[in-house]
Amino acid sequence: MVRVAIEAPAFLTTVIQAGLVVATLVTLVAGYRVIRGPTTPDRVVALDTIATNVVSVALLFALLTNQGFFVSVSLVLAIIGFVSTIAVARYVTEGDIIE
């Protein structure tokens, strides 16, 4: 298997690093909402936001380091985040996950 490394332009590297910082800060703010959220739905939305941000951080890191492994990791995390959000939303609205 031949691996081709593509060099990213300098401005793209700067944009990716800025995106990593922004995603990290938003994750920290969402973490605060998970801890201090006044209601359970607020906490669920904050957890979903954290899951989405972790996926974005993995994708940005894959772009920055040019490693495809992190794309696979982000896909798995996205699937797990989606299923867990559906399960928690069902539990909050109906009180049971499986009928």
Topology overview:
Elements: H1 10-36, H2 40-65, H3 69-94
Helix pairs in contact: 1-2, 2-3
Description of the molecule:
80% of the residues lie in helices and 0% in strands. With 99 residues, it is mainly alpha-helical. The protein has one domain. The protein starts with 9 loop residues before the first helix and ends in a 5-residue tail after the last helix. 9% of the residues are buried. The model has no long low-confidence stretch (mean pLDDT 87).
How would you summarize what this structure contains?
Helix content is 80%, strand content 0%. The protein has three helices and no strands. The mean pLDDT is 87.
Gap from first CA to last CA: 48 Å
Sheet with the most strands, sense and barrel status: none
Order of helices and strands: HHH
| Total count of helical runs of at least 4 residues | 3
Taking Cα atoms only, what radius of gyration do you get, to the nearest Å? 17 Å
Q: How much strand?
A: under 5%
Q: Report helical residue fraction.
A: over 70%
Structural class: mainly alpha
Number of DSSP strand runs: 0
